[in-house]
Design a protein that fits this description.
Blueprint (H helix, E strand, L loop, with lengths): L2 E6 L26 E2 L8 E7 L2 H8 L7 E8 L4 H8 L13 E5 L20 E8 L6 H8 L4 E9 L2 E2 L10 E4 L7
Parallel strand pairs: 3-7
Antiparallel strand pairs: 1-3, 1-9, 2-3, 4-6, 4-7, 5-6, 7-8
C-alpha cells in the first residue's frame, strides 16, 4: 500500500478509537488497517504519515531512523538571537536533554490556513513565528523547548517529515493523499 499523507486538524486525536468524545483519525480517514507512523499532540496540527506496512511504520517512527521533522511554531513573545541560540543547542528539559536542532525566525507563512478556533491574541504581547527542524520527537518536545526559553507556543504545525512536506503536497486540514514510500527519501 502507498504511504498516506494526512493533514491533521487541530484538536484531533492521533488514534482511530474513540476517546472521551474527542475527534479522532476515524472522523477523517476510512482506509482499513492503516496506522499512524508517529504522533502529533491533540492541540497540534499538520503532517502525519500512516501506513498498513509495519516495517515502514517502524522505519518512519523509530527514533533510530531520525527522519527530520519540520515544525512551524507561533510563539508568544519576540524570538531574539539569544532565544534561537538556546533552542538550537542541547537544551535540558529536566527529564531529558534535547539534541541540537535548527531553529530560525520566519515571517508568518502566507499559505497557512487559519486555525479553528483561532489562537488567543493579546494586544500587549507580540508573537513570532519559528521554523524548528528536529531529528528526534519526544512527547510535547517543541512546546517544552519554546517554553524553556521563555517563548510559550501558541500554535504548532508540522509541515515536513523526511522528504515529504505540505509545501510539495498541499493538503488542507482533514485532507489526505497517497504517495509512494520512496517519496520519503526525496
Amino acid at each position: 500500500m502507498p504511504l498516506i499523507l494526512f493533514n491533521k486538524p487541530f484538536q484531533v486525536l492521533c488514534q482511530f478509537s474513540e476517546q472521551d468524545g474527542k475527534a479522532t483519525l476515524a472522523d477523517h480517514l476510512s482506509i482499513p488497517n492503516i496506522y499512524p507512523a508517529g504522533r502529533l499532540d491533540y492541540d497540534s496540527e499538520g503532517l502525519m504519515l500512516l501506513t498498513d506496512d509495519g516495517k515502514l511504520q517502524h522505519a518512519i517512527a523509530h527514533p533510530d531512523h531520525k527522519e527530520a521533522k519540520v515544525y512551524l511554531v507561533q510563539v508568544e513573545g519576540t524570538a531574539d538571537a539569544a532565544a534561537l541560540e538556546k533552542l538550537q543547542a542541547p537544551l535540558n528539559l529536566g527529564d531529558f536533554v534535547t539534541q541540537p536542532c535548527k531553529a530560525v525566525r520566519i515571517a508568518e507563512p502566507e499559505w497557512l490556513w487559519p486555525r479553528n478556533p483561532p489562537i488567543r491574541q493579546r494586544a500587549d504581547q507580540p508573537t513570532s513565528w519559528l521554523a524548528i527542524t528536529l531529528q528526534e520527537g519526544k512527547n510535547r518536545q517543541v512546546r517544552r523547548m519554546t517554553a524553556a526559553v521563555g517563548l510559550p507556543t501558541l500554535r504548532l504545525v508540522r509541515t515536513a517529515i523526511g522528504g515529504v512536506s505540505l509545501a510539495t503536497h498541499p493538503l488542507m486540514p482533514g485532507e489526505w493523499m497517497a504517495v509512494s514510500p520512496t517519496d520519503l527519501a526525496s
